[in-house]
Amino acid sequence: MIDGMKRMAHWHTDSFNAFPIGDGYEVEGNIFDFRDDNGICYDQHGVTVRHWRRAHTKDGAYAYRLDWKGLSFVWTGDGRPDALTTKLSQGVVVFVTELQPDLGNLTSLKFGLPALMTNVTIDQAHTPHYAAGYMFAQVQPRLAMCTHLTYDEAEVPEMIAGIRTHWEGLFQFGAPDVVVVNVTKDAIWTRKAALPDSAMPAMPSAAEAAALFDLKPPMQMKVRFPNPRHTVADIKEPFVREQEFDPTAYYPADVFLAPHTAFPDDFKIVVLKMAGTQIAAKAKVMIRDAVDRVSARLNGNEARQIARRVVQSLTAVNTTAGLLGIVRDFARHSEDDAVLDEILADPKAVNDLLAKAEELERVFAQVQAFDDPIKQAQALGKALKQS
Predict the structure, then answer these.
(1) If exposure means fewest CB atoms within 10 Å of the residue's CB, which of 165, 300, 366, 373 is most exposed?
(2) Would you say 331 and 290 are in contact if contact means Cβ atoms under 8 Å apart?
(3) DSSP one-letter string for 255-307
(4) Are strands 61-68 and 47-54 parallel, antiparallel or unpaired?
């Protein structure tokens, strides 16, 4: 089956190899005897997973139990309510089974389908709502859950009533989709997953990015990409490539960029450089605002001259260190202390950059000697004019 899945997906995964995907699409099968009830199918890193048979129309359906550091989880999958599952689930913390409400007559009234179609499907392969509660009572988990169900508001009360016929303990639907269960040895709580509003992936936090790319500040601060296994030219016939329109035919001349038809080998991202560029862009906006606030307190001609000189200096700065020098020694004396908070959103990244920066230039040293914002602005304008 796994080999068939690989063959089915080969075109898709092989086409991705024109990009630096590296590893990640591998599928590793773990073959075990399905009749070896309570046998171990995984045992690594302190995690043990056991399996056993379930009655789901045809032989080959399994339930699984995971144990790790005193915590445990059972996933029954689909199947009829059975004694083997309740026996091998004893002492489990979280027990999750499926549930199909035995409401064939109601389904018939709503959709016009014969009740027999619903009833036979349940009686051959699934767990009715009464049976789910019965299994919970046999297992006595800390948390009982049901999933793989039609979460229809008209049927939810019936499902709960069937479960509560036998089970009085903690219960939670595994629905709607993406219910998160947090478990400790002392507490259990459920919540909805925090998901983006669209299909676009969410931006990772600094900690998530560090884990994802194996960053270890301050020594390991580069993200190295695997080389593509193919180029497009390797896997696309010349005839097909030649049918592509020349991009100059549809791009306006002022936005045209030469196409990148092959991802470069040995590509890497230098995180500090990227962070510095982002901080620099944000800092320029913040500094201009600070200049406007300070200059607003001066006479017109003098204010315009100082503002013009500061803006010129910002334009001339080519290094992150130089720009951060302006931020640290000028903007911090502006009327709004939140300026620094917004610019230096990542103190560690800024400290790493500042630790490697050279001594601030003479012009900023002169400005630093003054405490009053107006005198600072005047000194900055004078020093920049002289320089």
Answers:
(1) 300
(2) yes
(3) T------SPPTT-EEEHHHHHHHHHHHHHHHHHHHHHHHHHTTS-HHHHHHHH
(4) antiparallel
